[in-house]
Specification:
Aspartate Aminotransferase, domain 2; 2 domains; five-stranded antiparallel β-sheet; 9 strands
């Protein structure tokens, strides 16, 4: 099986290139494998343009895993499969889960879906995400420590480097920026294999005013650290 996030989160907020997933899925299926999309961090409208991040690649997975935002803080996860895979699971082996199908958790999940739809949070993620991306990219002219700003909707990453030519990772600086931003009431975290990417994944109710505060805080902190 091929397991992958449509946008790599812990990998550093990486948006795979055009056609990558179409080709990867084709190769896996040609070899008899199944394709699994991990939508735990990137699903439920966060990317703005689509409800599921895998849709941005023009593919349909065989299995989709989801969690965290499906319960908006309530512990809840789910797996969706094709009818064929679901039927194959009914092979005579009894499956038991103490809390599976918990009616309270299911009610919470349904309420979350209602709020996303009724409050237009997917469209909000697209609008505010584009605004925030522009604000963050605007900081690059003043702060050479920023090597890249990337992502979709309200799933963004700011890669910090000591040299834009060599892309030497600025991991220590990233940690310092996170700490100084926290002192100002803005919570960020570092991500990526080199720990030099600021992960920006705010709640979908995030507003343009919130984006201004975030960008302003980063501007001030980068001036101190960079």
């Amino acid at each position: 099986a091929f397991f992958a996030e449509p946008i790599l989160s812990c990998g550093g907020q990486i948006v795979p290139p055009e056609g990558f997933f179409r080709d990867a899925y084709a190769h896996v299926r040609a070899g008899g494998g199944v394709c699994v999309a991990d939508e735990v961090q990137v699903g439920f409208g966060r990317v703005g343009s689509h409800f599921w991040a895998f849709e941005t690649h023009g593919v349909v997975p065989d299995i989709v895993t989801m969690g965290k935002p499906i319960g908006n803080g309530h512990p809840l996860g789910a797996v969706v499969t094709t009818p064929a895979i679901a039927a194959a699971f009914a092979n005579g082996m009894e499956y038991f889960n103490t809390f599976g199908g918990n009616p309270v958790s299911c009610t919470v999940g349904l309420a979350v879906l209602d709020v996303i739809a009724e409050e237009g949070l997917q469209a909000r993620a697209r609008r505010v995400g584009a605004y925030l991306t522009d604000r963050l990219r605007g900081l690059m002219d003043r702060h050479p420590l920023i090597g890249d700003v990337r992502g979709r909707g309200l799933f963004l990453g700011v890669e910090l480097v000591r040299d834009r030519a060599t892309l030497e990772p600025a991991a220590d600086e990233a940690t310092e920026i996170v700490e100084r931003a926290k002192e100002r009431g803005v919570l960020l975290s570092t991500d990526g294999p080199l720990h030099n990417v600021l992960k920006i994944k705010p709640p979908l109710v995030f507003s343009e005013a919130d984006a201004d505060r975030l960008a302003g805080t980063l501007d001030a902190v980068l001036a101190e650290v960079g």
